[in-house]
Amino acid sequence: MPDPALAPAPTAAPVPEIADPATWTGRSAADVARGFLGVDYACPACGRRHAVSTRRLETRPGVARDLVPLLADLGLSGRPLVVFDANTRAAAGDALLAGLDPLAPATHVFRRDDLHADEAALGSLLAALAARPAFLVSCGSGTVTDIVRYVALQAGLPFVSYATAASVDGFASSVTPLIVDGFKRTYPGKAPLAILADPGVLAAAPRRMTAAGFGDVLGKVTALLDWRLARDLDGEAHCPTIDALVDKAVVECLALSGALARSEPSAVGTLLDVLALTGIAMQLMGTSRPASGAEHQVSHLLEMGDIRRHRPGSLHGDKVGLGTLAGMGLYLRLFGDGNLPAQRPTMPARVWESEVRRVFGPQADAVVANNPHEPLSGAAWDAQKRRLAAALDAYGHGIVQGYRTLLPAAAGMIEAIGGPVKPSQLGYSEQDARDAVGFGKEVNAAKLTVMRIAERFGLLYEFAEAAAADWPG
Ligand SMILES: [Zn+2]
Ligand SMILES: [Zn+2]
Fold this sequence. Notes:
alpha/beta; Dehydroquinate synthase-like, alpha domain; Rossmann fold; 3 domains; six-stranded parallel sheet; two-stranded antiparallel sheet; 10 strands; 53% helix; globular; binds zinc ion
């Protein structure tokens, strides 16, 4: 199948001015990201086609009051179906429905305490489409938006996201994580036409949700280094412009941590913009790479364990924050002394398979089928090690040395905002923590991250052991 990101755009527009990072000086990352809304162009920096279907990102007080003209601007008219969970209905429903009143909105409220984007939730929203809405409005954060995004695609309906918490970076995503048969996988979805938020609503959300959003942004620290190494080790597609945009956003967000800890509405509004921005970066690239690496693999494995054991889930960004601390710790462990580590024996295939069966339980067959049973070795690994050494000399060692101060500082920022820095704070056992670091990479076999690199050096499982005893190892 041809790669859609490389296909010539039928209506390719000229390269927008904003695509040149030289125009970014003096502008915030969110402001730059707004310049990418609605673009569709062939990128001079990477040669790929970049398209963003989201057309508006408005984070301002009272945005709910101006909804009708704003929607008309986007070509939306007719009756919307507004989708809530019980909490978002209570927190933001009245203002949102008042703003939509001229359109006579229908509503659907998920009443479950353990709402997941799973078969039951999708089915209940499908049934609500009997109201024959012209478009959908999701009112919530991660889970509600993910459910709506999938149903909107399947039903061929446009949708708009009204964000109630700056807790997750998936708002602008065009893919959606769903839990089907207990296994979390990424499915196609639809990106919202607009992302709207009121900073006052965001700042009134529980503080731990803001901490989770901060953790999800922090994850880009390891995601970006993983992406650059995947480019240099495996020849994976990479765009320097998108990389630079996400990098700029992370730097700005780190500087906001004090104001976030005080729940200042303007800071929480900026956090939402940055979270939306990373979703826009994923749309531009057509993959999750700019926003998701080793830290997300740790998070996904913890979450899959929650689902299998019917534990109430914790926030995605909390687990991403934990994964980021572990990812930085692993980078330091591997390369902190300025060299490649010495090669150690790797895990034999039969041990690996029995570990996968223990960790993944009923999903193990699929994991065993989709992953290499032994790490890359021999001449192919030697060639990768040479490319790795060159990449570390060119930029990697500088970044990894920065983790010596960033790692403890980031943990302090998460704590100050009210998030967890140890898996035990979310109720995970040492075994859960060890397995998340050791076997998160198996959730997405094709994605090269620092976990996979450590496995090839024969150092991953020893690090996982250390991380379990004293996070981040
Ligand atoms: Zn590009
Ligand atoms: Zn995330």
